[in-house]
From TrEMBL:
It comes from the Eukaryota. Transmembrane segments: none annotated. Keywords: ATP-binding, Chaperone, Nucleotide-binding. GO terms for molecular function: ATP binding; ATP hydrolysis activity; ATP-dependent protein folding chaperone; unfolded protein binding. Belongs to the TCP-1 chaperonin family. The gene is WBGene00280215. This is Cct-8. InterPro entries: Chaperone_TCP-1, Chaperonin_TCP-1_CS, Cpn60/GroEL/TCP-1, GROEL-like_equatorial_sf, TCP-1-like_intermed_sf.
Length: 220
């Protein structure tokens, strides 16, 4: 009878400090927990009443800001799942220029509800059978259907629409809320300056405007 040789295990093939998980469900849950933890760190900086964060990067440079894109960029996050959310936040910054914190918080909320669906217990009669709930693929498919339905309903929920982009007063009214979250108590002065600059630089067809044409410089 041959003697059974114990297996070495995957941990022996990896460097010290590495982590590995057994099964896809455990890995998915750990990734969801990481993203939720990341969102919890920057949720207090959300909105006009959000608190500033003090961040010291790898070269010991100090940042005091409530901008989620700046916070996430200086933290240099390495976790794969959290990095995907960070990339989504950076893409939001490039395309829209605001609401970076909203992207992280919304992604964490969706993943938190997805975890509840994965943990869901099924009950079969006449006996009770405890089992895992939906698979990650089923949850993703449901979210895609919900996204299509949301895009269908959103146009009917528009309250106001910016139609005249050459009107300084109208532009000022639209951008005031965005400036309030960054420069509270100074929004009136800054909104007036920014609205005039936007009207002067906006071409006839606003869709042709390229944000890369704007240069930003810091004056000490």
């Amino acid at each position: 009878m041959a003697q059974k040789v114990p297996r070495a295990g995957l941990s022996r093939f990896m460097k010290e400090g590495s982590q590995f998980f057994k099964g896809t469900d455990e890995a998915v849950i750990r990734n969801i927990e990481t993203v939720c933890e990341l969102a919890g760190q920057i949720r207090s900086a959300y909105g006009p009443n959000g608190m500033n964060k003090m961040v010291i990067n790898h070269i010991e440079k100090l940042f005091v800001t409530n901008d989620a894109a700046t916070i996430l960029r200086e933290l240099e996050i390495q976790h794969p799942a959290a990095k995907i959310v960070v990339l989504a936040s950076q893409m939001q910054e490039k395309q829209v220029g605001d609401n970076t914190n909203t992207v992280v918080i919304l992604a964490a909320a969706l993943l938190e509800h997805a975890a509840q669906l994965i943990y869901m217990v099924g009950i079969l009669m006449p006996f009770i059978l405890k089992s895992w709930g939906l698979t990650p693929q089923e949850v993703a498919s449901g979210y895609e259907l919900a996204c299509d339905k949301a895009l269908e309903l959103l146009p009917a929920l528009v309250v106001k629409e910016a139609t005249e982009l050459k009107d300084v007063d109208q532009v000022k009214r639209w951008i005031r809320s965005a400036i309030t979250s960054k420069q509270y108590d100074n929004e009136e002065v800054i909104a007036d300056l920014v609205s005039k600059a936007c009207v002067q630089t906006c071409p006839k067809n606003a869709a042709n405007f390229n944000v890369d044409n704007i240069r930003i410089c810091k004056v000490s």
